[in-house]
Design goal:
The complex is a heterodimer of chains A (about 325) and B (about 160). Chain A is mostly helical and about 325 residues long. Chain A is about 65% helix and about 0% strand. Helices cover about 40% and strands about 25% of the residues of chain B. The chains are: A mainly alpha (about 325), B alpha+beta (about 160).
């Protein structure tokens, strides 16, 4: 009896140790500086593009906004209302603060930013989201959430102008450094956030009759407020809508499982690229699509990435 | 936190959320990820008529009938114009938002306005079966139109 207990105890200890080792490897075996650098470059470029366009709507964040300053947070339902107001600037300075935000994004895109500046960029962006919550694109919300995670990482070590000009070497990952540990933890959080978004997006669609019926895509693609193309001719190919609707749901719900396994990962990411490019082209949501596609870089292997950018290697990376 | 907050209004969200939903709301994690769901929206826009009257209700000038967004058919796809579309949909979800935000904003733009007659126009897209059966009918004839959430708002109250 004593031997059995002792054996069980030993097995349990071994299991815990091996589990701890696996978690440790998962979190701290690699720095992912190249992936984070490339993701930062694409994300900040897209946010910059969106922000430049948003400068045309800047009146909606100022004294003439549909949402008066004092009521901005009332626009949220109770459960979603932030307790901290991040728009710290007066309304008549909105254009200037938005200009500063654009400048900070330029710096971040080129790789001259750092964690504190990135966090400041995020605070301003989140402040604008809070100031007029009604004026949002999906790309604003998702892009800004990714910017938050990214601001804790060492995403300025790769894919920067400085690196391109001076050919600096990408620093080695040091798992004993708190800064590096924080970076890889937030790298994993970024991955986790993405798969969570996909799963819930799929689940939410299952609540809708038209998604379950296989005709949701029809309603989207013939709504002139959603698409700039006349796609009515597609009703001659009704199966397109049914297959497209179900593929969308399957792709989103199974994303977390499929990207875990090496055998299915690249196929699923390829499917995602096609899926998002279709959304981008047909629904005119290219910035959103590029942000989503850019996140895939967080899932590819370093070797694959190096091969893909072989010509740029050692300059940007 | 991010897993629970994806469905924050569920029991788990309500139960656990109290410990961290303050921070989750600031960061933006407490979001329902519902793109084109549960069902994609139909064609919609605001129609509003601005009245300018004296204290006895006599018109001082001709009433103005306007739409929001101006391009009600969505023909202008510029990003800054599409934001107006998104704003309209956000306001349309909850009629209270129309009264609390949209109407005072319109009244502010027209200081002489006394009341605003409001309606949400919805063009329902026919289901795919109907569109296939009535293939030769022009698409615009297949749309079923209605005006909902009609109300008259006073500009004096805002």
């Amino acid at each position: 009896m004593f031997t059995v207990v002792k054996h069980l105890k030993l097995s349990l200890l071994n299991f815990i140790q091996s589990f701890k080792r696996k978690i440790n490897d998962f979190l701290f075996s690699e720095g992912h500086f190249e992936k984070l650098g490339l993701f930062r470059f694409v994300l900040c470029s897209v946010l910059l593009y969106i922000a430049c366009y948003r400068q045309l709507n800047v009146d909606q964040f100022g004294p003439d906004s549909i949402v008066p300053n004092g009521q901005a947070l009332n626009l949220y339902y109770d459960y979603y209302r932030p307790f901290l107001q991040l728009f710290f600037w007066p309304d008549d300075m909105a254009w200037l603060v938005h200009g500063i935000y654009i400048f900070l994004l330029i710096i971040a895109t080129l790789g001259f930013s750092n964690r504190i500046l990135m966090l400041l960029t995020w605070i301003i962006a989140q402040g604008f989201i809070q100031r007029n919550f009604s004026l949002l694109f999906g790309a604003d919300v998702i892009g800004n959430l990714f910017l938050f995670y990214l601001s804790f990482t060492r995403c300025h070590e790769s894919f920067t102008l400085k690196k391109y000009l001076f050919r600096n070497k990408t620093p080695e990952f040091n798992s004993n450094l708190f800064s590096d540990q924080l970076s890889t933890v937030f790298f994993r959080l970024l991955q986790f956030q993405l798969v969570t978004i996909y799963t819930y997006t799929g689940f939410e669609k299952l609540k809708g009759n038209s998604w379950w019926d296989g005709t949701a895509l029809w309603t989207v693609l013939v709504n002139p407020q959603f698409t700039s193309f006349d796609l009515l001719f597609l009703r001659d190919f009704p199966l397109f809508f049914a297959i497209g609707t179900f593929v969308t749901i399957i792709f989103e719900i199974y994303f977390p499982v499929m990207v875990i396994f090496e055998k299915t990962k690249y196929f699923w990411l390829f499917l995602g690229i096609v899926f998002h490019l279709m959304i981008g082209l047909l629904l005119g949501l290219m910035p959103f699509s590029i942000v989503m596609i850019a996140t895939y870089v967080l899932f590819v292997d370093k070797k694959f990435l190096n091969k893909l950018f072989a010509s740029l290697n050692h300059r940007f990376f | 936190m991010m897993v629970v907050m994806g469905n924050g209004s569920s029991f788990l969200g309500r139960y656990l959320g109290k410990y961290y939903f303050h921070i989750a709301n600031v960061v933006g994690v407490n979001t329902t990820w519902n793109f084109f769901s549960p069902d994609p929206a139909h064609i919609m826009y605001f129609r509003y008529v601005i009245h300018f009257e004296d204290e006895y209700g006599n018109p001082l000038q001709e009433a103005k009938e306007l739409y929001y967004p101006e391009q009600k058919d969505g023909s202008n796809f510029a990003m800054n114009v599409r934001r107006q579309n998104y704003m309209m949909r956000f306001m349309a979800i909850d009629p209270q938002r129309v009264g609390n935000y949209f109407i005072p904003w319109i009244c502010k733009q027209y200081p002489k306005a006394t009341r605003v007659q409001f309606g949400l126009i919805v063009h329902h897209i026919p289901n795919l079966d109907k569109a296939l059966t009535l293939k030769d009918t022009p698409f615009s004839d297949l749309l079923t139109n209605e005006e909902i959430n009609q109300n008259v708002y006073s500009c004096k109250a805002s």
